[in-house]
């Protein structure tokens, strides 16, 4: 561990720049993880961060101390006042890490995918990533005008889901959908009204679920390429759900159908 008291330390200055600027994060291909949970998930699934920055008083917490010791040569310990200049969350979180944003290689489309078309709200994207990871989605593909998946607000909302799924950004979703159909997959377009009931749609096979942005929904091009448009039945009279809530409902209907397809049949006892 290295104790740092000057804000002019090069690694500290890099962290300050990345926290402050989305442009710099995109350009560098890096992101900043804030708090023990995100750093622990990253360390467990991806390995050592490039830089781990810890407020001096946080070292008293066993989990923080364990991470500091584990990544000793990459760890900077700073005074709480200096840490407060870095963090966008309350200073009590005590820890942040600079890491390379994982970039999965181009590969064949997976059996279970989520497509996000121009979703702009960071909280929604983070929540969708969290639901996708929980549902067992393999690939999440974001269109070119989606919010940056590795922004601090998205990372906080996703709670570590970034490191449990493959995230592909700046994707031409209509072109990807054509490729997916050619490989035997089915694209389902979620629409607020007028589609087949979600609970009647055949979602147990190779599925890519497309979710649009908070106002305009899916692009007409992507809807036209979908095999089926699906709508969540809402007998309560509300016109639409929050985009993240709608994605979660749809993803777990996929889970239900996929689980039913593979579940073993119970033997029937006969008298």
Any overview of this molecule?
This protein has 271 residues and is of the alpha/beta class. The protein folds into 2 domains: 2-100, Ribosomal protein L30/S12 (60s Ribosomal Protein L30, Chain: A); 112-262, SPOUT methyltransferase, trefoil knot domain (Alpha/beta knot, 3-Layer(aba) Sandwich). Helix content is 37%, strand content 21%. The chain contains 10 helices and 12 strands. The protein has helices at 10-20, 22-28, 36-46, 62-70, 80-84, 122-135, 152-158, 173-182, 220-225, 243-262; strands at residues 2-3, 30-34, 51-55, 75-78, 95-100, 112-117, 139-143, 166-171, 186-190, 196-197, 207-212, 228-231. The chain has a 7-stranded parallel sheet. Strands 1-4-3-5-2 form a 5-stranded mixed sheet, sandwiched between helices. α6 (122-135) links the parallel β6 (112-117) and β7 (139-143). α1 (10-20) packs across α2 (22-28), α6 runs parallel beside α7 (152-158) and α6 runs parallel beside α10 (243-262). The longest helix has 20 residues, at 243-262. The protein is elongated. The N and C termini lie far apart (71 Å). Mean pLDDT is 90; it is low at 263-271.
